[in-house]
TrEMBL record:
<dbReference type="InterPro" id="IPR000436">
    <property type="entry name" value="Sushi_SCR_CCP_dom"/>
</dbReference>
<keyword id="KW-1015">Disulfide bond</keyword>
<keyword id="KW-0732">Signal</keyword>
<keyword id="KW-0272">Extracellular matrix</keyword>
<dbReference type="InterPro" id="IPR000152">
    <property type="entry name" value="EGF-type_Asp/Asn_hydroxyl_site"/>
</dbReference>
<dbReference type="InterPro" id="IPR050751">
    <property type="entry name" value="ECM_structural_protein"/>
</dbReference>
<dbReference type="Pfam" id="PF00084">
    <property type="entry name" value="Sushi"/>
</dbReference>
<dbReference type="InterPro" id="IPR000742">
    <property type="entry name" value="EGF"/>
</dbReference>
<keyword id="KW-0325">Glycoprotein</keyword>
<keyword id="KW-0768">Sushi</keyword>
<dbReference type="InterPro" id="IPR026823">
    <property type="entry name" value="cEGF"/>
</dbReference>
<dbReference type="InterPro" id="IPR035976">
    <property type="entry name" value="Sushi/SCR/CCP_sf"/>
</dbReference>
<feature type="signal peptide">
    <location>
        <begin position="1"/>
        <end position="21"/>
    </location>
</feature>
<dbReference type="Pfam" id="PF22914">
    <property type="entry name" value="Fibulin_C"/>
</dbReference>
<dbReference type="InterPro" id="IPR055088">
    <property type="entry name" value="Fibulin_C"/>
</dbReference>
<feature type="disulfide bond">
    <location>
        <begin position="103"/>
        <end position="130"/>
    </location>
</feature>
<dbReference type="InterPro" id="IPR009030">
    <property type="entry name" value="Growth_fac_rcpt_cys_sf"/>
</dbReference>
Amino acid sequence: MLILLPGWVALCILQLALGSAQECPSHQQVLSTVRQMQKLLSAQEAAHLQGTRSLKKQLSVLHSRIQRLAGKHNDTCPLLAVPLNGRKLGRSARVGHDVHFICNAGFQLVGSESRTCRRDRTWSGTQPFCRSEVPWARGRGAAQGAISRPLQRLGGRKRQKLANPAPALVVFMGSFSPGIDECSSNPCANGGTCVDGNQRYTCLCPRGWSGVSCQSPVYAYWVTLSNSSFSRQPRCAEGRPGSRHCSCDAGFQMRAGGVCQDVDECQLFQPNPQTRICLHDCLNLPGSYRCLCPPGYVLHADRNTCEDVDECTGSQHNCTHGELCINTFGGHRCVRPKCPPPRHNTSYVKTSSFQCERNPCPTDSRACRLAATSISFHYLPLQANHTVPRVLFKMSTTRFVGDSLRFAIIGGRGQGVFAVRRSNRQTGELVLSSPVVGPATLEVELEMSEFSRKVLLGKHIFKVTAFVSQYEF
């Protein structure tokens, strides 16, 4: 840095060096001027140093942010597909996180029940799929007895007689033009629920109504079906002289008197779990049958099983602003996770929809330091009478700095059906230990504590809520 001295100072310094003091200021004036220049130089040097430090700090912050973004991008595994006729529990694909798979009722999981995202950004185990346990395609000749034809048409229906009408749900499919939301015009009458789909809509009809738009009373159709609808004359052909061959249409059986009587497939096959033809319920029709599903489900393409309607993704829920929609088997729930109120110098702030973090503690507050550093909320949909034991939830930490972790159930409703166990040094599991009859809502509060030489370093609270359906599918 170049500092220019005043011209008269430079000239006088030269004259002093030559031994001439003519027209020059005094020595005190020269020294004062030099000291001022030194102070100016020091101030400029300090400002330059401060600017350099500030620039280095900004570059360091920028470098850290870029590293974090790169780390987030590189620490995830590819997204896993949801198996057909099954569900995937867990959304995080980051290293160290688990994803669990379950199958709907009537299907068996083949493959890995749980998969973990490993450090090399690959998933452990193999991709699972759901294999049907129900013998839909097995031969029924032995069970049919005198029935003269195999069951080839698998429709959907529910056991329903005119004297005891109890229809649960009748589903009819409509279509709409691509890009148009037909549900916006409320096409379902008589209290029916419209579910918007891919190039189609579905009307979920309430009890007593049927039709594409739930426009027809159920009884109006069945009144026209007199007993004669379930019996008809056989088809006969003349054979050799003096002989005659008669047969019945598909779905009918020859009875005494030469009359073809309808075969009630629902009564014949549905009561036996080994031969049942409908997952939920069965309705007998002349020469055939139909499977029906309860509210919150639609009939699967196989016409026998029922699949859950996801009201949350289809915007068919009634959750208000600020509430979160949780899809369950056969319905949905609206939840509003809340952080606990301030208490004993301990307060929390919501950092995400399902997570609360503790605010910094006062230096002299022991109660605050012993409180949970974070609280998370988890909602699990369950089917009724689920096979046990069943791992529902896993707890772990990605930054393990202590020498031990402890897992425990510390509260909640329905604790008797849950248990906690350790799967490895850094992971604990919440296990369903007893089957649950639905519908029911179970709550359990879990604690994961981290210790170093028996000194508590921190703990996390998991608030788990399980919504148990009344159905087993």
